[in-house]
Amino acid sequence: MWERYAEPGRPDPRPITVYLLDDHELVRRGIRDLLEAEGDIEVAGESGLAREAAHRIPALRPDVAVLDCRLPDGSGVDVCRQVRSVDPTIAVLILTSYDEDEALFAAIMAGAAGYVLKQIKGDDLVTTVRRVAAGQSMLDPAVTAQVLSRLRSGPPEDPVTRHLTPKEHQILDLVGEGMTNRQIAERLSLAEKTVKNYVSTMLSKLGVESRTQAAIIAARQHARSGHH
C-alpha cells in the first residue's frame, strides 16, 4: 500500500519519480519544492510544452506524470493519451484550474488516474501522487458519474454506444450506477460469469479498458437523454 512511503525512518528502495508539465515556471517550481520536501518523491523532469513532454515522459518512465490541462501547444489530456499508448504503467494526474465536466470526461477517457484542481491543498496533492504511484485510481465511478450527470449536450444517441445490444445497454447503465458484476447478476437474474462476458464485450465495443470509463459513457448517455 502507498502508506509505506509515508513511514518516517524507514528506508525506501527508491523514491517515487514524478514528471511535471505546466507552462508556468512558478507553478512547476512550487509543485517541485512541495513534492521534493517530502524526501521520498523526486521530480525526474519537467517542461512547459506538450510536445516536449510527450517525447520525454516515455523516455524517463516516471511513476507519475502531473500534466497541466491547458498548454500553449496542446493539452495535458492529449499528452496523457500519447504517453499511456506507449507506456500504460505511467500514472497520470491532470492538473487544471477549471472544474469542467468536459475536461474531466476527456481526462478519464484518456486513461488518467486522477484529476486535480490547482486550488488543491499541498498535503492533498502529495497524498494523491503517492496513491496513484501505488496503482490506485483517484476516480471513483459513482462520484464521477454524479459529476457527469450535469452534462447536457449533444445528440440523443451517442455514436460510441450505438453498436451495443439492448442487454449491453442495460448492463452499461448498471455499471454506471457503480454496481459490481455480482450485483448486476442478481438484478438481471444471470450467472456472474455471463455478466462478466457481457461486460468484457461491452468494454471492447466501447473501445475502453475500465469500468470507470464505461461508467462515464453511461453518465453521458443519461445526461444527453435528459435523465437525472
Short description:
This protein is α/β, with parallel strands linked by helices and 228 residues long.
Structure description:
The chain has ten helices and seven strands. The protein has helices spanning 25-36, 50-60, 76-86, 101-109, 122-133, 141-148, 166-176, 181-188, 192-206, 211-224; strands spanning 16-21, 41-47, 64-68, 70-71, 74-75, 91-96, 114-117. The protein has a five-stranded parallel β-sheet with strand order 2-1-3-6-7, sandwiched between helices. The protein starts with 15 loop residues before the first strand and ends with a helix. Mean pLDDT is 84; it is low at 1-10 and 152-156.
What fraction of residues sit in β-strands?
Answer: 5-15%
What does the largest sheet look like?
5 strands, parallel
Cα-to-Cα separation, first versus last residue: 37 Å
Gyration radius (Cα, Å) is 19 Å
Instruction: Assign an overall shape.
Output: elongated
Question: Which labels suit this protein?
Answer:
single chain; alpha/beta; 5-stranded parallel β-sheet; CheY-like_superfamily; phosphoprotein; 2 domains; elongated; Rossmann fold; 10 helices; DNA-binding; disordered N terminus; transcription regulation; two-stranded antiparallel ribbon; 7 strands; 228 residues; Arc Repressor Mutant, subunit A
SSE topology:
Blueprint: E1 16-21, H1 25-36, E2 41-47, H2 50-60, E3 64-68, E4 70-71, E5 74-75, H3 76-86, E6 91-96, H4 101-109, E7 114-117, H5 122-133, H6 141-148, H7 166-176, H8 181-188, H9 192-206, H10 211-224
Parallel strand pairs: 1-2, 1-3, 3-6, 6-7
Antiparallel strand pairs: 4-5
Helix pairs in contact: 2-3, 3-4, 6-10, 7-9, 7-10, 8-9
